[in-house]
Amino acid sequence: MRLRGIRVRGKRRVARVIVAAGALVLAGCGTGGAGDGAGGGGGAVREPLALVPRAERKALPDLAGKGLDGKRVALSRFAGQVVLVNGWQSTCGPCRAEMPGLVRVQKRYADRGLRVLGYNAEANEGAARAFVARYGVTYPVLYDPSGHELLRIPKGVVNPQFVPFTFLVDKKGRVAASMAGAVSERRAGAVVGELLAEE
């Protein structure tokens, strides 16, 4: 979702429009379907959720903030474990399509050390909470309506203009795989299994 044809006057008004534009861009829904491919375009991501060679993996800063449950969420709490990070929006069709599969992946691999962290930046916190309840999401969801934490992710890992997105963090805290668009349960499970097997 992009803003076009907007005319503004004055520095304060320009600043307000920039903020509004940023919020809408972060809330934009990708065009990917519920398969292994990516939607949205424009991102330098590997498809479909392919593992990056270990020597090329980028270190990830600690993503932290308030969770949808009101508790503090921090990626650093999962240090030494494989983490699947999934960005979504309650009004996004592909996000709704992929969520049941991601919940099943989380339950299937939890005993082997997988941790899942959701990411949501929409303005309507109530809608986001209802989404979590509807799909039985039990893992923490970082609620970041300002989009600040998303912009700290290394360039090229995700396209900040679209959701859903998914990326995986290896046991050393590096980005091991990423994609834009909805990821299938089969593909997510396969890559998670490969990462869990790494020494």
From TrEMBL:
The keyword Signal applies. It is found in: Cell envelope. GO terms for biological process: cytochrome complex assembly. Residues 54-197 form the Thioredoxin domain. InterPro entries: Redoxin, Thioredoxin-like_sf, Thioredoxin_domain, Thioredoxin_ResA/DsbE_sf. GO terms for cellular component: cell envelope. Coiled coil: none annotated. SUPFAM superfamilies: Thioredoxin-like (SSF52833). The keyword Membrane does not apply. Pfam families: Redoxin (PF08534). Residues 1-34 form the signal peptide. Keywords: Cytochrome c-type biogenesis, Disulfide bond, Redox-active center, Signal, Signal-anchor, Transmembrane. It comes from the Bacteria. PROSITE patterns: PROKAR_LIPOPROTEIN, THIOREDOXIN_2. Transmembrane segments: none annotated. This is TlpA disulfide reductase family protein.
